[in-house]
Amino acid sequence: MINVALVFIAYFFMEFVAWSNHKYVMHGFLWRWHKDHHVNDQYKVSLDKMATSRFEKNDLFFLVYAVPAIILMIIGFSINFLPFVFISIGITLYGFTYFLIHDVLIHQRLNIPFLFKKPGYYTNAIIRAHLAHHRPKNAIDFRNFGLLVFSLRFFKN
């Protein structure tokens, strides 16, 4: 039971990690990696018409998040310390969720048609919150740095 709890704790903790890294690292000292992710924003291009490449410098952050999970997994199996393994599973599951929602669903960098059909209430709110960050109407919009946790106002149409 504790191992399952570690997976959930690591998963939800990663939302805080993603939020803080997005705010202070990606929009801070590693902006040079992240700025190509915002390249279409100034032109207000619709999502389905965005010029996207297969690879952005921003994708390097995948490694920043994957390496600790891989290291925890290796150490956990090497010394037979399963809590590290379950924490790495939670980090990896969050990374997979982030990839599906952010890269596939929101930015449509991969064409997986069944994921684009009628997003639900929560998924629409995620999309609105993320797009508010990319195309802010005011300073408050731009402050949305998370993916899964955001202001309740994005649930409104």
Question: What structural keywords apply?
Answer:
157 residues, mainly alpha, globular
Describe this structure in words.
There is one protein chain. The protein is an all-alpha fold and 157 residues long. The protein starts with a helix and ends in a 15-residue tail after the last helix. Helix 1 packs across helix 4, helix 3 packs antiparallel against helix 4 and helix 4 crosses helix 5. It has one domain. It is built from six helices and no strands.
List the helices and strands and how they pair.
Layout: H1 2-29, H2 31-34, H3 60-78, H4 82-106, H5 121-134, H6 139-142
Please give a quick description of this structure.
This protein has 157 residues and is mainly alpha-helical.
Distance linking N and C termini:
39 Å
Low-confidence stretches: none
Q: Structural class of the helix and strand makeup?
A: mainly alpha
Instruction: Output the helix-strand order.
Output: HHHHHH
Mean pLDDT: 86
Strand elements, count: 0
How much helicity do the residues have? 55-70%
Total DSSP helices: 6
